[in-house]
Amino acid sequence: MKKHLNTLFVTTQGTYLSKEGECVQVRVEGIDKAHIPIHTLGGIVCFGNVLCSPFLLGHCAEHGVAVSFLTENGRFLARVQGPVSGNVLLRREQYRWADDPASSTRMARYVLTGKLANSRNVLLRAARDHGDDGRDEPLRAAALRLADCLRRLERQDFSLDEVRGIEGEAGAAYFGAFDALITSDDEAFRFKGRNRRPPLDPTNCLLSFLYTLLLHDIRAALECVGLDPAVGFLHRDRPGRPGLALDILEEFRPVMADRLALSLINLGQVKAKGFETLESGAVLMTDDTRKEVILAYQKRKQEDVEHPFLQEKMAVGLLWHAQALLLARHIRGDLDGYPPYIRR
Amino acid sequence: MYPEADLVPLSALRHYSVCPRQCALIHVEQIWEESRLTAEGRILHERVDEGGAEKRRDVKRVFALPIRCLRLGLVGKADVVEFHRQADGCWIPYPVEHKRGRRKEEDWDRVQLCAQALCLEEMLGVSVPEGALFYGKEQRREVVAINDELRRETEEIAAAVHRMLADGRTPPPEYAPKCDSCSLVDVCLPQGVGGRGNRVARYLTKVLEEP
User: Is the complex ipTM more than 0.90?
Assistant: First the structure.
């Protein structure tokens, strides 16, 4: 895991991307802005009115570069997929597991163990930072409830629905204490509960946007190892829903998206005036805020961490590639389980 | 004799002789990681792949020649096949495989060349006693005798590749120094994913300990 492929985020409206030899040519209003060698890219994310030539799309498909189209506000619209590739034997095994309640439950337990452990660590870490000023109380209380949920997740006799029930309970405990993680004095960022369609406050807006960015990356990573991102274990099939990508997203939400959102808010990198409220109450980001968030996300991806299972240093942006590989290895029977990414 | 539907790419032989796991990652799991080296090779080949032929008095050169061998179940393209005119007026094929790197101790490239020779023999009904490897880094040719020993080695590898692809299983990794220059090292994880049992359970116990 030495190489770190970048994602090209295109937010300038009216940009035209085309293939120029082995490069992506970026043009705005007919003027050449950049040439980016395709082999340095892992993905292209286009926001709003951004055009791609069909030859570039074909070239990207051939090289496993994921291309997604989002609205200007980051709502996922579509992605371009090349010919189906990857190992058909691996995918068939994935489908068999998804059809089998016992295998699905086992996999759901793995990813939720990751999610709950990471959520708990986010709470405990903040509680330590808060010190004993009393504000750490709700955090510690929620962390205890998560620890209890984690213990119950180990019960092998629980059905998939019971496991999902534990997740619901854990989610309520975690988001119930989420407001205590926000140290910003700005009233606009107070967290009163999770909402997403549409997000009704800046914090939810930020969380949803980061989940979208992360989902794009995870989906691309799963496709790279030949898994079908649409067929999940915890998330059941629904047309258009990337079930497996959402499964793996669960492990990463707390450490990648939630913590990044919190530091953007708490360090004042995003401001309340960087969000606008529509007539319906839906909250959107301004262009500048979106750019700020993307930059912070990209920067975060370039930091080095040690992978806890592989015990190898790698860029944060490669963690989901490592997880996709480990999952493929487990499904192929090379590995005795799936080790979720858990950040201590 | 293999049916046409079961032919495997000639390149799989080289991959297998380098590392059976690398071969399985590419041909079973269909994973391909492009690195600078493979990109350069691909661009080089796109040019060669345009095909065509050129002829001088006693040597005809054909580019990107499609070839196959039903006996060993192989199919692919030869970069360059020269046809040398003999004194009796016959043309003898002479495969020349282009490599961007330099000459290797191991038989990896020689096996690939031999496989091409075997294809040409079957398709043209002649014997191919010799071929050459051209190494770009050194700008020199290594003449390779297609002898019995190399033929036997090539046939054994072809059979092993067929067994592995039919089985559809990827062998576990074994770390070796050659892994460091393999373009698939990042997906293979030769040091991270071994076949040792109960690793995930141990990992979970460890990371879930109270902090």
Answer: no
